[in-house]
Amino acid sequence: MKHFPELQLTPVSARVLGCLLEKQVTTPDLYPLTLNSLVTACNQSSSRNPITNYTADEVSEAIRLLSEDYLVTKVLGGRAPKYEHELSDVLDLSDAERAVLTVLLLRGTQTTGEIKQRTERLYAFDSLDQIEEILTGFIEYPHGPLVERIPSGAGRRVETFRHLLAENGTSPTEPEAEPASDDWRQEMEQKIAELEARIAELENR
């Protein structure tokens, strides 16, 4: 097993890996994915943050890098080669853990409520406590944290989480800049998602 976070992905590689993980569950009939399908998945306008415009060359390079790290393999046999992830060969994750990691790879920094809401198509969580337990396990991963907890304060209204698998991220000790006033809508959306998840949890109980 490779040691994380020594294995650092580029932002494009992280997006490609996240897309393969997502599409394996949401569109199994179309999985593995061709290069063109991967480009489309990376650049789709829904369920992605940030929205990107990666080229086929950029996605191809990301596939090459992921292949070198044994995270992606090419599947031959059709008119065009297809690609599938091999994350299970690197990390032993449950379906629930894989769902949380997928959303973090595709959507960036999020609250537990947002993660619960955005993993609905990938895994049916019963409560926020399940997600918090998984996040804690990622933070305490023995070979180095996979996820960072960002406490509330310093302009942040709620606690958030982000993955540490891609390069160019903020280090755990580096404070984030306070969000500008233009981020008010995003803050409110995060808070609403958190409240909706809590209400759904109470209704289930």
Automatic annotation (TrEMBL):
Supply the Pfam families for this chain: DUF480 (PF04337)
Record-linked SUPFAM superfamilies: Winged helix' DNA-binding domain
Name the coiled-coil region(s).
none
UniProt superkingdom: Bacteria
Which residues does UniProt assign to the signal peptide?
A: none
Family matches, as InterPro entries: DUF480 (IPR007432), WH-like_DNA-bd_sf (IPR036388), WH_DNA-bd_sf (IPR036390)
Spell out the family assignment given in the record's similarity comment: Belongs to the UPF0502 family.
Q: What is this protein called?
A: UPF0502 protein
State the species of origin: Roseibacillus persicicus
